[in-house]
Amino acid sequence: MVISLDSGHPTFLHQMMVASVFFLLIMVESSLGYFSFFHGATPKLIIAMVFLMAIFNKEDIHLANLVLIGIIFDSLQGAPLGYTSSVMVLVNIIGTIGKRRFNDMPMSYLWLDFAMVMGLVMFYCWLCICIYYQSLPAVGPLVFQYSSTVLLFPVMILIYQGIQYMVEMVSRLK
Amino acid sequence: MAKITTDRKKGRRSAGLFTHLIIFVTCVVLMLAGKADISAMNSVRGVIAGFFTPIAEVVSVPFRAIGIMVDGIGNITQMREENIQLKEDVKQLHRWQNEADMLLAENRQLRALSDFPAPIGMQSISARIVAINADSFAHSVMINAGAKQGIRKGATVATEDGLVGIVVDVGHFYAQVLLITDLNAMVPVILSDTSWPAVAGGNNSYTLDLRFVPLQAELEVGELVQTSGHGGVLPAGLPVGRIIQVTDDYVRVKPIVDFQRLRFVTVFMWPDDKDMPSDDILTQSYSPLPKQESEFSLEGINALGQRTGDAAREDQ
After folding, report:
1. Is residue B240 domain-resident?
2. ipTM of the modeled complex
């Protein structure tokens, strides 16, 4: 499967659209806590979306987008300001560096690569918690969060394709 | 010419990467600066959370409904077993109710005799949970009552079952509650049967760790753990959890409150405008008695942690 985003939109409009998708995702992610199944560790959907957008969007995600969305998310989640932003920037760096390599990859390989990137992200999160609180957190919720995010990655691809389709429809209507 | 274009591209890419790295480091620094509890950062957080919480509340409505539905479907399968268990429990409860009525009457008589002060009347406000923040970094919930409703930082949050957490951040119309399962949560507790003091700490999972348990303590699985009231932030006697595992290395406590089905909470506050109760109130706090007189307990220490009676006289 090869995905590519060819929006052709001006930069500002494109960034606004990216910000809207991120905003909606953080709201959804905040609401997932209502499912008793996810209580304790909701999947990091936003990270999967940043990863996909960093790879397949022709235009780079603006750093201000990542930082602002991260800060809003941290304020809602009660996490220290800058935590989610740093994770998002980290994933964006990885996605941007490996853009060419990831771009033409079959879905299964991309999934595997995302699993590895997510592993790195979770290790970073664990490290942050350790440094910030100077205490070792339970690993169980982190592992659960990792697994659920990786398992939901194909769903995120479908959502991303849906957004892409909608953008194309709108641009054609224009 | 082609070489110059390639070099320019490479240069732009490395400049972009450099900017990314700078922003990444800035974010990390910002995060670590949060540890310093800078008031400006707290204000920014408060403003942002205050602005976006209503949106999160609206977005969460369908999720809340689906969550309740999914929970309901899951519950049907357990209903038969639960029904049998509940019938047994009802019988047991009836027996306990009779016993409790007797003890209540006896307690009233004894209090009247010893002129024991009445339990402290704390102000209470009911609130609904509007956002459950279930990230692995922090275990907290957002409630739809804030400074406007009289909520203050440090207020105790509980349900009819037991302790939920403590208010750590207050906005105009919302407050953030740190759950007892959070890594930062430390609750001074006592064991209900033996009155051994300890500290129940969260570890970002479903259970709590019992720390600083005296070596002499004989712990039993199923024993109730409740707040001791020491430190003066939390009222004494609130159920926290039950011991579920005792090993040489750790003691695990399962919280009494089912955090997965948390919908409404009650916020308790001390009656005056201060965040911390006065010394007078603290000294009146409930002070648990040991099961047997010979056992070690909080004897000789009041709710402020000061030595009283013979011990205090010896100090002098």
Report:
1. yes
2. 0.81
